[in-house]
Specification:
By secondary structure, the chain is of the alpha/beta class. The protein has helices spanning 33-42, 77-90, 109-118, 127-136, and strands spanning 7-10, 26-30, 47-50, 63-69, 91-104, 125-126, 139-149, 153-162. The chain has one domain: Vaccinia Virus protein VP39 (Rossmann fold, 3-Layer(aba) Sandwich), CATH 3.40.50.
Length: 165
């Protein structure tokens, strides 16, 4: 699926996902400079950049996949709106966003309480909340899987691509 595809790892953290991809086609972006330095040290043949002022450091329509793993729940609604425009700018016409996020479910109140208590993200949303960000910006979304980790931590795995008009 990812062979010969360019990957932008949005919120790459300590770089752990990079080894799933070819070094010459991967770029990690992360706002925390210490994490970027750590990633560069650990994975010296991969590219990592500090994310500055909502601007992704890549050319227009140059990315096949944007990978977002447990990042959106750390970002306010207003900031996500800004990033959505950047995602549109950098994705190739057939590009996709692939995301996995912690997710609240009305039918699982205990899990929701636990997730809010243990997770450092201040913006854990329900499924509709995540999907609506993308729909409002002209993306078509597909929920790929809903799953629970460690019996109490709900996650949503979904993809988004720009609608073709």
């Amino acid at each position: 699926m990812f062979k010969d595809k360019t990957i932008l790892d949005f919120g790459s953290g300590t770089g752990v996902n990079c080894t799933l991809f070819s070094p010459e086609l991967y770029m990690g972006v992360e706002p925390n400079q210490k994490r970027v330095m750590y990633s560069k040290k650990l994975y010296s043949n991969y590219e990592f950049n500090v994310l500055k002022e909502y601007s992704l450091p890549v050319e227009n329509e140059s990315i096949d996949y944007i990978l977002i793993i447990s990042v959106l729940h750390h970002i306010s609604c207003a900031d996500i709106k800004t990033y959505m425009e950047e995602f549109k700018r950098v994705l190739k016409p057939n590009g996709k966003v692939i995301a996995i996020e912690p997710c609240m479910y009305q039918q699982k109140p205990f899990c929701n309480i636990f997730m809010n208590w243990i997770d450092q993200g201040r913006f854990i949303r329900d499924e509709k909340g995540y999907i609506d960000f993308f729909h409002k910006d002209g993306y078509k979304c597909d929920v790929l899987k809903r799953f629970t980790k460690c019996f109490v931590y709900n996650e949503l795995f979904f993809s988004a691509c720009l609608k073709k008009y």
